[in-house]
């Protein structure tokens, strides 16, 4: 499988002298999406004003975008709702799951999960004021921690720091055997690899669209509800946009009879329109080919970096099948080293305490980029360029 099959960098706006290895954190800008955002602002909002909800069909955008995402994560049309942030979607999914298992008290996640997922779980527990409990064993121990006390298992398939991948089919089967509800966070999966939500039969899944899906900073999140359980899912955030008839202005809440009940308030139209366009870069792309190309690129990266930089310690699983679409290296001066790299046009990022993180997005990266990046890393490491004082001060965002 050649990486050229999915390579379409011309569709993106990426500065010529930069190699962008951070599409796992903030995807690059699709050129058409920028034009579309401009058009929505100036022509639709500017000229149509409030009529645009109907004349430009803004009102259908959340569902339309949900269907585009559904295709990329292999679930049926109508089963994905969009809006809000991933943190909010995690809260909604957890609240729905707890209501589905009223006799159980444990939310199970793992200590490799992205902190906001854990904070939202803790915040929900504090809000409902019952004797619920959040348990966070190590990722490798989580399957064995699924007992019959567990109401819901909330896991992120791909670890944001190391790229380590959970086995969705196996863990979901364990959860269901114990009678627990399964929620998958696909933040680092959607747009990076095939997702087998249907195969594993998980009840709920959530994810964001500004990473591999290139929806731009703050792009709306998504939530999947397995179609057969939609009517059991009671929205904790019962907003009017999830109401069966929002413009009937009824005084009592009545949820929509679809996943759309997970919507809350007025959708972010500019950002959704941008995302809708951004998702067209996937037209004609088979996500299996993206995965194959991502493995080719990340294997090449590991072998090049290890051959050139003995100072760096691989922090990701060595076996490609056990990783998502990122490769991480541990290095004590990782923050400064990453700043030195960014200064030289190789853009990755840093996660505390010592992880240098590099994402692989085959839509706009190829083997030449990977080798070029490895050479720059070698220059920074072998000349200790990271020791320059200007690279030591930490910015707010790392
Ligand atoms: C990126 C990421 C988030 C971010 O949540 P926001 O609410 O969109 O800021 C949450 N969870 C996981 C697992 C992530 O990777």
Summarize the structure.
Helix content is about 35%, strand content about 15%. Helix 7 (about 195-200) links the parallel strand 8 (about 180-185) and strand 9.
Describe the structure.
The chain folds into two domains: 33-282, Type I PLP-dependent aspartate aminotransferase-like (Major domain) (Aspartate Aminotransferase, domain 2), CATH 3.40.640.10; 286-391, Aspartate Aminotransferase, domain 1, CATH 3.90.1150.10. Helix content is 34%, strand content 13%. It is built from eleven helices and 15 strands. The longest helix is centred in the C-terminal third of the chain and has 22 residues, at 287-308. The model has no long low-confidence stretch (mean pLDDT 97). Bound molecules: pyridoxal-5'-phosphate. Pyridoxal-5'-phosphate is lined by residues 85-87, 114, 116-117, 156, 160, 185, 187-188, 208, 221. Pyridoxal-5'-phosphate (PLP) binds at residues 85-87, 114, 116-117, 156, 160, 185, 187-188, 208, 221.
Q: Strand order of the main beta sheet, please?
A: 4-10-9-8-7-5-6
Which stretches are low in confidence, meaning pLDDT under 50 for 5 or more residues running?
none
Count of DSSP H/I helices:
11
CATH topology of the largest domain: Aspartate Aminotransferase, domain 2
| Beta-strand share of residues | 5-15%
Spatial gap, N to C terminus: 34 Å
Mean pLDDT: 97
Number of domains: 2
Order of H and E elements: EEEHHHEHEHEEHEHEEHHEEHEEEH
Percent of residues in helical segments?
A: 25-40%
CATH H-tier superfamily of the largest domain: Type I PLP-dependent aspartate aminotransferase-like (Major domain)
Report the bound ligands by name, code or SMILES: pyridoxal-5'-phosphate
What is the annotated CATH architecture of the largest domain?
3-Layer(aba) Sandwich
For the biggest sheet, the summary is: 7 strands, mixed
Provide the gyration radius in Å. Answer: 22 Å
Gross geometry = globular
């Amino acid at each position: 499988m050649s990486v050229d099959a999915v390579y379409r960098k011309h569709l993106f706006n990426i500065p010529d002298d930069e190699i962008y290895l951070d599409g796992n954190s903030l995807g690059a800008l699709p050129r058409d999406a920028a034009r579309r955002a401009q058009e929505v602002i100036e022509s639709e909002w500017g000229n149509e004003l409030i009529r645009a909800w109907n004349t430009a069909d803004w009102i259908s955008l959340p569902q339309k975008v949900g269907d585009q995402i559904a295709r990329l994560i292999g679930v049926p049309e109508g089963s994905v709702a969009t809006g809000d942030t991933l943190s909010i979607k995690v809260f909604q999914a957890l609240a729905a799951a707890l209501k589905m298992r009223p006799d159980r008290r444990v939310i199970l996640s793992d200590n490799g999960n992205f902190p906001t997922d854990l904070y939202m779980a803790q915040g929900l527990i504090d809000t409902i004021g019952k004797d619920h409990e959040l348990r966070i064993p190590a990722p490798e121990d989580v399957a064995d921690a699924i007992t019959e006390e567990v109401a819901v298992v909330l896991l992120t398939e791909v670890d944001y720091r190391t790229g380590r991948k959970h086995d969705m089919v196996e863990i979901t089967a364990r959860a269901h055997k114990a009678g627990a509800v399964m929620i998958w966070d696909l933040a680092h999966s959607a747009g990076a690899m095939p997702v087998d939500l249907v195969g594993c039969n998980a009840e709920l899944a959530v994810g964001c669209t500004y990473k591999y899906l290139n929806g731009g900073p703050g792009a709306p999140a998504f939530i999947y509800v397995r179609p057969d359980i939609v009517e059991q899912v009671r929205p904790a955030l019962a907003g009017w946009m999830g109401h069966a008839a929002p413009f009937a202005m009824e005084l009592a809440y009545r949820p929509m009879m679809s996943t759309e009940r997970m919507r809350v308030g007025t959708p972010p139209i500019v950002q959704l329109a941008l995302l809708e366009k951004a998702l067209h870069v996937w037209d004609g792309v088979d996500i299996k080919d993206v995965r194959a190309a991502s493995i080719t690129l990340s294997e090449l990266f590991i072998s090049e970096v290890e051959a050139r930089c003995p100072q760096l310690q691989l922090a990701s699983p060595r076996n490609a099948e056990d990783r998502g679409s990122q490769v991480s290296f541990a290095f004590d001066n990782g923050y400064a080293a990453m700043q030195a790299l960014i200064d030289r046009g190789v853009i990755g990022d840093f996660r505390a305490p010592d992880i240098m993180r590099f994402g692989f997005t085959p839509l706009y990266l190829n083997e030449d980029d990977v080798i070029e990046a490895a050479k720059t890393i070698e220059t920074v490491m072998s000349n200790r360029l990271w020791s320059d004082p200007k690279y030591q001060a930490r910015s707010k965002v790392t």
